[in-house]
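Progress report, Aim 2. The chain analyzed during this reporting quarter is listed below.
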Amino acid sequence: MLISETIKKHSKLLAIGLLITSLAGCGTQTAATPNSRGPQAIPVQTAPVQTGDLNSLNTLTGTVASNLQTSIGSKLAGRVLTANVNMGQDVHAGQVLATLDPTDLQRQLSQNQAQLQVDQAQLPGDQATYQQAQLDFQRYQTLFNNGAAAQADLDQYRLKMTTADAKVQADESVINKDQAALSVTQQQIDELTITSPVDGTVSTKNVEVGEQVSTSSNLFTIVQPSSLNVSVNVPEQMIGSITQGTAASITLDSQSSNAIQGKVSKISPAMDSVSRAYPVQIDIASQNQSIKPGMTVTVQFNGLKSQPGIIIPVQAVVETSQGSEVFTVDNGVAHMHLIQLGAVNSDKAVVTSGLNAGENLVIAGQDLLSDGSKVRVVQSADQAGENGLINQPKQSQQGAKK
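Predicted structure tokens for the chain:
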């Protein structure tokens, strides 16, 4: 859980408190007497700062993802002709997910086939010419060897044979190129049919019939929900207690009584600069069909060693532009402390620096305080802060009447 999200709701009391205090101040100005002695002491409730087990606050929030997630695109750009599956649908390897319009490529294929036929038709005639030239050369070679033919005649028939052979080789080369072009076009036509490479479930579908897609488009995402993991950010003071293999209980808010067990598989060696925590991955083999990729779950690590540290009520923290602040009381005066927070849950927060055990911590009425404010300690939260200021004149009046 993010610190700011947990504490924000407590800090919202500040604006309300200031407004009520302002209104109360307007009333007291008219009732002020010459015996007024300056600002009233702000009523606050306090409690001593105590230490506890830091790892008791190890209930964190994580996000479910699939260990096996496949993004599927198209090798070719084109217009979508069919989109055969929908989000949430189970698919098997080789199943057709979508097809692109093959019109242009089919036209190209026809041209390739026609050119191949033309070039193939040329080959038999050139082969026959070569075979005849080869026979003529062999005949004149015999005559020349017997002294019945001149060297010039023999050279002429050799040239004819060589020329005919070169023509046959050229024909074969052209035919090979035609066949290669035909094969490429046919392969491209085949690639217009987009299939799933794996068994799984369609988690995203980003294409509809008639849309134009490119080679960079992500058309579908296929996940395998039987193999899931949970990503969770672990605070600094807890990360040292977690190793690969540490057991964890995973629950949905709606199914808090049905925990799924998992084990830590990956721990980032570096702190995330945004969350100020360490990303950790927990692998789970889920047979619970209600847990799906993308869901938010609660994570609690099991069997962590006790780790002493300062734990305070989360409502004592005031979030400001300077950071997280708390107030302590000494001899009727409030003292502000800028603190560093670790793990935070719905009612408690770990303090990693800025506060000492045994100090007298303000747990109600702190939204009205600043460093050096005069305070008076009351016994309950109902008597603290703006409520205490508003009710104090009434209490004084009731006491005077008695």
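The two ends are 52 Å apart (CA to CA). The domain at 59-66+224-301 is CATH 2.40.30.170 (Elongation Factor Tu (Ef-tu); domain 3). These observations will guide the mutagenesis work planned for the next reporting period.
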